[in-house]
């Protein structure tokens, strides 16, 4: 199941920041990990991912650098900046409050990730 | 890597020119032709299957980013697809590579949309100085476009607008003049007198009319006076009539033009046709110059008659001078009032000088008659007439602005040309407002009709109020020209109210002129009263109060202070004075310099500074009686 565009616009950045909070990752890896970890719910085309990454980079949330990978090819890796960490923390709190509010209204019968997993 | 059959060929070596064109300046300075800005080479080197290479080329190409950004983007997308191909191979060994490529192309999404979003995001990441420059350029562009449209609107208004001339001020004035009975009008007699009055001979020019009998050319003067007998008779007759009765026209009276042409062959001015509705500022008043010449003839005749003890002739000359002054002042122009006041001042001085020179010339009755005639000048209140000034301005406004029927309008090209031609008939818009294309901006810079009229009305109301004030109250009121001077000094206001700054005369000096005439006249009336007192009592009084009420209704005020005029007997001779511009009583002593400037009112602070900086010129009193007659003897003419 794909998420509506407007919802994705809000969820995409925090999803990417969350993934990058664990370790630095490159573009294809982010696409694949998002699709796998959310079982396709937050799968996004590359035409969406790369502009999203460049936007986060322009805002100073992430930074990029070219490294040589194990297979000998050059890849561009992204990692979270201090500003990105603060933003992630703030966004996470907001998402939790939003999820709580939705749950209290009965929109969410189960926690958000579990609902996503069921879908 | 296994390449599909249709994969692009490995990149060929680029030409030297291509390398040079795709090498950044940094590498150039190091002497290396790296070609590192060649993003197509980056794609080619990635050795991707053709559909993927084309996809990356399309996205990068459409992004229209800087070359360095495109190189980075191409590298990242190539790495992305290489990772995708590798992952497909690893997870599904033996699968169809063409299907994997198609899947990657499909997963990527719309390349057009991707390139737009990528371009937008990448631009956000550029340095702030670049973004600031772009925003500034965009802002400037917007301003230029808005400015162009504004200019177009202004230019259309400026060149298409036409002033509406609704009133004929000259005709309105002439209608009142034409309603005066012919027998009451003096104008034609003055014209006749002008034609009869030759100019004084050249030998008199420097001394005329204050020429002393000792002067070598005095005989020429008396001969000239004899030749002017008919003119003098006509002047007396004219001045005795109640009104001048001159109509307004932009054309000089053809009789005067003809006379000037006969007397001065170099005078080539042709009689021009009078316009039906002439601009008020183009009105000509040739009679004023002629009337000044007539006054000079009367002045000489009065002194000559006094010398011959012909008191009746003197009284008649002085009476005619005052009639001439009243007639000169008749008319809507400020200059008419000023010429009238100047002639009246001459009449006052002539009277004073003759009484001082020949104390027993006049009978008591004649002295009283002279006093009454001077006191009655301009109904006893010599003032400049400002009523015509509003006409002049309103007429200019209707010739410069459009009229929306509700008191508003905007300035037009035709109107501006008219206005500038008044200042300088040869001027054109380009000289005054820079290049012609900028002239329409004047519609935005110069106040609209309603604003301009309101500002003029406000200024004139202040000036008219000042015109009613005696000089001693000037210090406690705003100066009449203060705001006009402020408009002139501020470049923005000067442009905004350009017609006012250009057309409004220096009223302060004009208003003072009237006050000076009052002071001179009061000095004369006190002088005549003193003379009458002397005749009755044998001596002059100790104080001016002794003159009241038999010889004088009241002691007149000093126009600088409002307190009674100062008086003293010096060597048994009377001396009457105003404290003058410095407001200090110096005992009737005039300043040492012959450039004394004690009549011109200036604010108290300025007067104090003047007195300290140049006491010879400013420290002293304004002597009102006696007024000495000091004709030119010719000894100092060389």
Molecular structure report:
The complex is a heterodimer of chains A (119) and B (638). In chain A, 61% of the residues lie in helices and 13% in strands. Chain A has 119 residues and is an alpha+beta fold. In chain A, strands 1-3-2 form a three-stranded antiparallel β-sheet. By secondary structure, chain B is an all-alpha fold. Chain B folds into three domains: 16-126, no CATH class; 171-385 and 511-579 and 621-625, no CATH class; 393-510, no CATH class. Chain B contains 28 helices and three strands. A three-stranded antiparallel β-sheet of chain B has the order 1-2-3, covered by helices on one side. Chain B is elongated, with a radius of gyration of 44 Å. Mean pLDDT of chain B is 90; it is low at 1-8. Classes of the chains: A alpha+beta (119), B mainly alpha (638). Chains A and B meet through helix 2, helix 3 and strand 3 of A and helix 5 and helix 7 of B.
Name its key features.
heterodimer; A: 119 residues; alpha+beta; Arc Repressor Mutant, subunit A; 61% helix; 13% strand; globular; disordered C terminus; B: 638 residues; mainly alpha; three-stranded antiparallel sheet; 28 helices; 3 strands; 57% helix
Give the structure's gist in a few sentences.
The complex is a heterodimer of chains A (119) and B (638). Chain A has 119 residues and is an alpha+beta fold.
pLDDT < 50 stretches of chain B:
1-8
Helix content of chain A: 55-70%
Q: Rough shape of chain B?
A: elongated
Radius of gyration of chain A: 15 Å
Strands ordered across the widest β-sheet of chain A: 1-3-2
How would you write the strand order of the largest sheet of chain B? 1-2-3
The pair of chains with the biggest contact is: A-B, 25 and 25 residues
Strand percentage of chain A lies at: 5-15%
Order of helices and strands of chain A: HEHHEEHH
- CATH topology-level fold name of chain A: Arc Repressor Mutant, subunit A
Average pLDDT of chain B works out at 90
How large, in whole angstroms, is the Cα Rg of chain B?
44 Å
């Amino acid at each position: 199941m794909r998420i509506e565009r407007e919802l994705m616009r809000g969820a995409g950045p925090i999803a990417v920041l969350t993934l990058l909070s664990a370790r630095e990752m490159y573009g294809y890896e982010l696409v694949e990990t998002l699709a796998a970890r959310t079982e396709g719910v937050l799968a996004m085309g590359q035409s969406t991912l790369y502009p999203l990454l460049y936007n986060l980079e322009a805002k100073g949330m992430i930074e990029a650098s070219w490294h040589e990978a194990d297979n000998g090819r050059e890849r561009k890796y992204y990692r979270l900046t201090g500003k990105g960490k603060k933003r992630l923390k703030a966004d996470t709190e907001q998402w939790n409050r939003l999820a709580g509010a939705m749950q209290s209204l009965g929109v969410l019968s189960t926690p958000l990730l579990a609902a996503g997993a069921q879908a | 890597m296994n390449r599909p059959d249709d994969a692009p060929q490995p990149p060929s070596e680029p030409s030297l020119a291509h390398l040079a064109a795709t090498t950044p300046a940094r590498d150039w300075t190091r002497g290396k032709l790296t070609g590192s800005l060649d993003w197509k080479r980056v794609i080619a080197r990635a050795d991707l299957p053709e559909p993927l290479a084309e996809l990356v080329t399309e996205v990068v190409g459409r992004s229209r980013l800087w070359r360095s950004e495109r190189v980075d983007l191409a590298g990242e997308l190539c790495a992305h697809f290489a990772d995708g191909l590798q992952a497909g191979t690893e997870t599904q060994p033996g699968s169809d590579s063409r299907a994997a490529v198609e899947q990657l192309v499909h997963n990527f999404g719309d390349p057009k949309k991707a390139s737009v979003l990528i371009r937008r995001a990448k631009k956000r990441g550029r340095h702030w100085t670049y973004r600031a420059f772009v925003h500034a350029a965009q802002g400037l562009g917007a301003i230029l476009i808005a400015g162009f449209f504004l200019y177009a609107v202004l230019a259309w208004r400026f060149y298409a607008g036409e002033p509406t001339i609704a009133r004929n001020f000259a005709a309105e004035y002439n209608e009142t003049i034409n309603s005066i009975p012919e027998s009451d009008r003096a104008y034609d007699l003055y014209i006749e007198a002008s034609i009869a009055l030759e100019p004084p001979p050249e030998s008199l020019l420097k001394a005329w009319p204050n020429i002393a009998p000792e002067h070598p050319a005095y005989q020429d003067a008396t001969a000239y006076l004899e030749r002017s007998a008919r003119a003098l008779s006509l002047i007396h007759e004219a001045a005795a009539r109640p009104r001048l009765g001159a109509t307004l026209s932009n054309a000089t009276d053809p009789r005067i033009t003809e006379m000037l042409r006969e007397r001065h062959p170099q005078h080539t001015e042709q009689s021009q046709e009078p316009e039906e509705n002439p601009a008020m500022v183009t009105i000509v008043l040739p009679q004023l110059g002629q009337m000044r010449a007539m006054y000079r003839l009367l002045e000489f005749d009065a002194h000559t008659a006094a010398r011959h003890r012909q008191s009746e002739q003197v009284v008649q000359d002085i009476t005619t001078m005052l009639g001439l002054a009243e007639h000169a002042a008749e008319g809507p122009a400020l200059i008419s009032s000023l010429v009238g006041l100047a002639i009246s001042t001459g009449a006052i001085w002539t009277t004073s000088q003759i009484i001082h020179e020949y104390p027993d010339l006049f009978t008591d009755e004649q002295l009283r008659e002279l006093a009454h005639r001077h006191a009655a000048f301009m109904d006893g209140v010599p003032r400049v007439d400002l009523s015509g000034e509003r006409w002049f301005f309103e007429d200019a406004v209707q010739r410069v602005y459009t009229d929306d029927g509700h008191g508003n309008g905007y300035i037009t090209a035709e109107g501006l040309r008219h206005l500038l031609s008044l200042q300088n008939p040869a001027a054109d818009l380009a000289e005054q407002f820079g290049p012609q294309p900028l002239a329409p901006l004047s519609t935005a810079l110069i106040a609209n009709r309603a604003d301009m009229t309101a500002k003029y009305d406000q200024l004139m109301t202040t000036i008219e109020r000042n015109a009613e004030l005696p000089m001693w109250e000037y210090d406690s009121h705003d100066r009449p020209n203060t705001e006009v001077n402020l408009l002139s000094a501020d470049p923005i206001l000067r442009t905004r109210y350009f017609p006012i700054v250009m057309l409004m005369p220096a009223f302060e000096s004009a208003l003072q002129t009237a006050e000076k005439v009052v002071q001179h006249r009061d000095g004369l009336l006190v002088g005549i009263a003193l003379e009458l007192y002397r005749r009755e009592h044998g001596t002059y009084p100790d104080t001016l109060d002794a003159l009241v009420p038999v010889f004088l209704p009241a002691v007149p005020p000093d126009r600088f202070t409002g307190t009674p005029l100062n008086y003293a007997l010096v060597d048994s001779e009377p001396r009457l004075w105003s404290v003058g511009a410095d407001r200090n009583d110096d005992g009737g002593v005039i300043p040492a310099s012959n450039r004394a400037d004690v009549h011109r009112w200036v604010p108290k602070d300025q007067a104090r500074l003047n007195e300290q900086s140049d006491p010879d010129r400013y420290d002293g009193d304004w002597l009102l009686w006696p007024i000495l007659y000091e004709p030119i003897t010719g000894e100092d003419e060389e």
